[in-house]
Amino acid sequence: xxxxxRIRDELLRTPRTWLVTGVAGFIGSNLLxxxxxxxxxxxxxxxxxxxxxxxxxxxxxxxxxxGTRFTLIEGDIRDPRCCAAATTGVDYVLHxxxxxxxxxxxxxxxxxxxxxxxxxxxxxxxARCAGVRRVVFASSSAVYGDSRSMPLPExxxxxxxxxxxxxxxxxxxxxxxxxxxxxxxxxALRYFNVFGPRQDPNxxxxxxxxxxxxxxxxxxxxxxxxxxxxxxxxxxxxxxxQANLLAAAQPVIPATPRVFNVGAGQRTSLNQLFEKLAAAxxxxxxHAPVPVCIHDDFRPGxxxxxxxxxxxxxxxxxxxxxxxxxxxxxxxxxxYISRNERPTQPAARRFVNA
Length: 354
Fold this sequence. Notes:
By secondary structure, the protein is α/β, with parallel strands linked by helices.
């Protein structure tokens, strides 16, 4: 039995109350699904700026009997009163409400700071006043910036290459301050490139995997920034859920690090990713159009290579990556095919960092 299996068994026996901010988003809705399946009580907070009501409805469609265990608050983390109401009576906070886009942060750094930094500060302050046991929050591999270490250990920070990266690093600093000054337990999870069901394939800030799946399903061209040798550590949303459960409910001794990488511990180039997605499509639909990609210019703010050193989260929390990339991509492709996803905008979208 893995450490996560033990945590799941414990939660089934003794339900807790959780706040998931950004509950209508990609990761937030997957967290909601997992927590309800474990019999937990969940408060969800979202302002539906980037999250979708359909994500919440999809989770609840097959869990109508669990409706009494879920409370949805439509509100904004920039509102301290809303944060105070959402954290009341909560054991654990899983904070995922944010503007999660490097390009958008370059377009509007002030708004990104307002949401990502001021909003997180409001959540931390509210959690402290409400007596929350622990706050687990989404950081990002973007904080490593121009670090040349590979794979990236948690201490190998470089200079941030975008306002988004700066906002996530600032959140980690505030969380450490709340832990040191007020005794609020906090853990930052530095996500690498997360993918899986319910990830939005549309829009100018869409992530590469759902964006390319949409293009492939419709016989459109996939655009690759640069020479395609840029590499990323692609991690499934199931492993992100695992990391959140472990970070929240696993006993943590005082000497344990408060920041952990969440990745697969492997590096895949964009060229390789395109080939893997094309192979997955061919396996699922032999009549699909032949995949085509073209190379564009490199994009400002992009990190060239990214790979997580996951030794710390494995050692301290018992994290275990769940499946190989090829299998996970095949399963994700099948989900989009089953939902008959179709793009509402041209398929030539841009790659977005985690």
